[in-house]
Amino acid sequence: MAKPDRDAEFTEYVSARQAWLRRVAYLLCGDWHRADDLVQSAITKLYAHWHRAGRADNVDGYARRTLINTYLAEQRNGWAKWTVLHRFGGGGSAADPEPTPAVLSDLELGLDLKKALFRIPPRQRAAVVLRYYCDLSVEQTAQAMGCSTGNVKSQTARGLATLRGILDPNPTPVMEGT
C-alpha cells in the first residue's frame, strides 16, 4: 500500500514549495494568473513522475526543471500567444490576492527591472531567472534548461545585455583618465 504514502509525501512537498514555484513561474511569465497555470501544469507532471522525482537527490531541482520545461514548451507551441487571460474588475479578487512585493530600497528601479525582465526572450529570461533569482551555477542552470553550459552562458550574457539596454538606453560613455 505505497500509494497513500506516496500521495502524502507528494502533498507535503507541494504544500511546502508551492509559493516558491509560483514566484519562479511569475518571473518567467510576468502574470500571476499564468504563473498559477504554469505551476499547476508542472505539479501535475511532477505527480505523474513522483515515483522518480521523490527519489531524486534534489527534488527542488527536479521540480524547477519541470516548471522551466513547461514554460519553454508553452512558449514554443504558441499557447501564450493565443490564450487571453481576463481580469475582471481591474485586478484579482479578494479571495486570490497577489503576493505583497518585498520592500525595495528603490521601488521604481525594482518595478523597472521587473518590466524589463518580461521584455527579454523566454530562454534568456529563464537563464537569467535561474542564475540570479534561483542562484544556480552555470552547470545547474544547464541541467535545469536541458542545454549546454555554453548555451547558458550566451543566453545569460544576451539577457543581461538586453536588460541593460532596456534599463539604460542611453548609457553615459566612460572617459578614460578622468
UniProtKB/TrEMBL annotation:
Give the Pfam families listed for this entry: Sigma70_r2, Sigma70_r4_2
Task: Could you list this entry's UniProt keywords, alphabetically sorted.
Answer: DNA-binding, Sigma factor, Transcription, Transcription regulation
| Domain RNA polymerase sigma-70 region, chain residue ranges per copy | 15-76
Query: Which Gene3D superfamilies would you find in this protein's record?
Result: 1.10.1740.10, Winged helix-like DNA-binding domain superfamily/Winged helix DNA-binding domain
Report which superkingdom the organism of origin falls in.
Answer: Bacteria
The record places domain RNA polymerase sigma factor 70 region 4 type at: 113-163
Q: NCBIfam families of this UniProt entry? A: SigE-fam_strep, sigma70-ECF
Q: Which PANTHER family match?
A: ECF RNA POLYMERASE SIGMA FACTOR SIGM, RNA POLYMERASE ECF-TYPE SIGMA FACTO
The record's family statement is: Belongs to the sigma-70 factor family. ECF subfamily.
Name the record gives this protein: SigE family RNA polymerase sigma factor
